[in-house]
Every structure is written in C-alpha cells, then in structure tokens.
Amino acid sequence: MTTDHPSALGLGAALVTTIFVVELLRRGILREKFAALWLIVSASVLVMAVFPRLVRWLAEAVGVQVPANLLFFLTAILLLLVSVQLSYEVSRLEVRTRRLAEEIALLREEVRVLQDR
Amino acid sequence: MTRPAGRRLLIAVPAWNEEATVGEVVRELHEFVPGADVLVIDDGSIDATAQVARSAGAKVVVLPFNVGVGGAMRTAFLHADRCHYDAVVQVDADGQHDPASVKLLLDELDVASVVVGSRFAGQRAHQVRGPRRWAMKLLSVALSRVAGTPLSDTTSGFRAADRKAIKLFARHYPAEYLGDTIDSLVIAARAGLTIREVPVEMRLRQGGRPSHAPIKATLYLGRSVLALGVALTRRRSATGEPE
Fold it and tell me: What ipTM does this complex have?
C-alpha cells in the first residue's frame, strides 16, 4: 500500500545512490555517459520518495491498479535498457581491442625487422 | 597466364596452434608460388607456430590473443593494403588447400575481385551430411543470389582478393565466427565487387581434426543462419567499426 507520506526507505536509497554516483564521478572512475543515467534514476527515486502521491497519480493515469506494480514495471524496463546498453558498450570495446591487437601484431613484426637490421 | 610482371602477391596463412603443419605449408607455397610473399598470422597460438613458420621462411605476425580467422585475415588485409600488394590469397595452415591450386585462383582474379576455391564445384564431391549439409546448402543458395554467381562452397577458406577487395577488407572484414566467410562475401557483393568460384581439390588435413559431431553440426547450422541473417539485413557494410 502506498501512503502519501514520504518514505524513509526510498529517501535513504535515493540519497545513497546519488552520493555514491557523484563520488564515483568525482574520482573519475565512472564515465559521464553512465553517471548521467544513474543520476537521473536516483533523482526520480528521490522525487518519488518525497512525493509518493506522484506514483499513485501516475499509476491511475496509465491504468495500473497497484501503484507498486508500476514501480516494478518501470524498474524492469530500466534494468533491461541498462543491460542492453552495457552489452553494446562491451561489444564496442571488444571490436576496438581486436583492432588494437591486430595493429600491435603488425607493429611488433615491424619492430622485430628493424631491430634485426 | 597473362599477368603484369609487377603484380605483388601476398599469401596469407591464418594459423592457430598449427605447428605440426604450418612449416610444410609455407615450404610448399614457396615452391609452388615462387615470387609470392608468405605471411603467417599467428592467431594467439600457444605452441611453436610462429617459430616454425618463421624458420620455414615466412613473414610472421603474432596476435597477442586469439581473435579468430576473421581478425587474423583483417590483419593480413591491413598489411597488404599498407604495403601495396596487388593480390592476397588466403590459405589454411592445416595443409588441406593444395598450394598448386593457388594459381587457379589467381587466374580467375583477372575477371573477378574475389575468388573462392570450392570443394563442391569440382568433380569429386566432398561427403558432408546432416545439419552441416543443410547449412551449406542454405548458405550456398542465399549467397549465390546475393553475389549473382553460383557459389557452392561459401565457407571455404581458400580465397583470393584483388586490390579493390583488399582495400575494402582492410577496413571492413568481419571478425565474427563464420562472419569471415559468409559476411565477407555479402560485404564484397554489396560493394559491387565481382565474385567468382573456381573448383579446387581439397587434400586431407595433415593435422588437426575435422569437426563432425552432430551437436556441433547443428550449432553450426544455427550460427550460419544467424550470421547470414545479420549479414543480409544490415544496411551498410558496418562491421561494428565505429569510425
């Protein structure tokens, strides 16, 4: 059941996520394109934690009877998108790594030939 | 053979743990195709492939890890493009391709940009059965249409490429499994290159073991269909290379 009072759990989770992401970003561990996504996510969680009524309105607007189910649905979609994005990034990195490996192989042979001279 | 005297030929031999056979292959290539440079691409071997090939007289490039035949061949095309070779012939390191047939492929390069040496176009048909056979049939029918020429052995690794094809493949050569054979034909056809097939005799492998297990064959069918589907539905020849 969703009450109209701010939820401590949601609030806490959103704050922790935000601080964690900002910290990673600050230390230069997380690239901006990934950080942006998580910042948006934690911001929306924060908003929903402060104004639970929003979730109820939203659920009514799209015809979901139990507001929590709307949250679960949105979460599932979000995680799906994130994992697709990660697969995409991994594939791209793999292509680049391969490319570099090929380049290294050629260069190493060139260096060997030069050294033998 | 009416070929300009100055045509520079590179024979590319992708090799992954083929120390048992690669030396003999290199020696035979030097013997049957004098004047050609032999480049062995050691695809992350853990055996003595590179040393054996080098002492047999080949130029060897060593990939730091295994990238598959596609990646190895792209390395070769990259090298061929930079060193201005006029033709590249791909020959397997396991000895199943007859070095004497290299000139059959080269002759056909006079009228085509990509030449595929086929086991099946010849008189003595190769015995293949089950899912692997269906996969080959399917690929053959589909790719013949795309290429506009009959292709019976689309996954053959015995191929030749001319200058135009080298330029194309140095940039876009699929590194995906099976992509190197299937997808490369689609890429070449889409780029407007002429593709031809010539019959060649295959010899028994001198080393390594052929894969005949039914599960493997079925998997092969699935992956072929996937590779074909991806190749055919792609709009441009974007081989995942964000440039």
Answer: 0.77
